[in-house]
């Protein structure tokens, strides 16, 4: 299995790999902005279809037990009431015939938005801010953790770390798009 530069530099990561369907540029970037900011929920179907193909190709012979989504910032959910990562994860789980688990993780406190922050600030911003609320649903399971966009990997790193501490057997990450 070929690894990216990040995975070669950091060999003891809490996740097995990250799969992304698109590079976050051009038409994919425009579509993801609509999906995220303008609530084009129908886009979840298209993103999930391509992401399913990528996950199945990149994670051949992996049997996922559950799919979960990266939890949104609580203040954003109160304000907007929309969680694009949840929409994508539910759609992907359905297409893969894998159980989607709702609200397994949460963010502990109000933090700055990740967008607009550099790599070091993003890592600091997420550190210690995620908690697994239902560890009994994760223990011993192979988890597919889903988010809409992967930029610096900070969110995936922190969430996967918490899932492993909750005794997940393995954590794989998937996003509709990546910047890297």
TrEMBL record:
<dbReference type="InterPro" id="IPR029057">
    <property type="entry name" value="PRTase-like"/>
</dbReference>
<protein>
    <submittedName>
        <fullName>ComF family protein</fullName>
    </submittedName>
</protein>
<dbReference type="InterPro" id="IPR051910">
    <property type="entry name" value="ComF/GntX_DNA_util-trans"/>
</dbReference>
<dbReference type="Pfam" id="PF00156">
    <property type="entry name" value="Pribosyltran"/>
</dbReference>
<dbReference type="InterPro" id="IPR000836">
    <property type="entry name" value="PRTase_dom"/>
</dbReference>
<feature type="domain" description="Phosphoribosyltransferase">
    <location>
        <begin position="83"/>
        <end position="175"/>
    </location>
</feature>
<comment type="similarity">
    <text>Belongs to the ComF/GntX family.</text>
</comment>
